[in-house]
Design brief:
Blueprint lengths: L9 E6 L5 H19 L4 E6 L6 H9 L4
Parallel strand pairs: 1-2
């Protein structure tokens, strides 16, 4: 294990239903707040995948990620 890599950021992809952009953003903000409360202050990146989303980061996450 590389000690220099310990404590890195957390990257999450969440598959969601289609919502208006404002509602999706507000849910993401609330989710990040709850994560920070539970895990402490850490770098957490969250990507929300909506139905039909084929952007590069979503494709990479599906190819290399670990399903929780």
């Amino acid at each position: 294990m590389d000690a220099a890599k310990r404590g890195g950021d957390i990257d999450l992809l969440i598959e969601a239903v289609q919502l208006p952009a404002v509602e999706s953003f507000m849910r993401k903000v609330r989710f990040l707040g709850k994560l920070e409360d539970a895990l402490g202050e850490r770098k957490i990146d969250v990507v929300i995948q909506h139905p039909g989303d084929t952007c590069a980061i979503v494709c990479i996450a599906h190819e290399t990620g670990i399903e929780l």
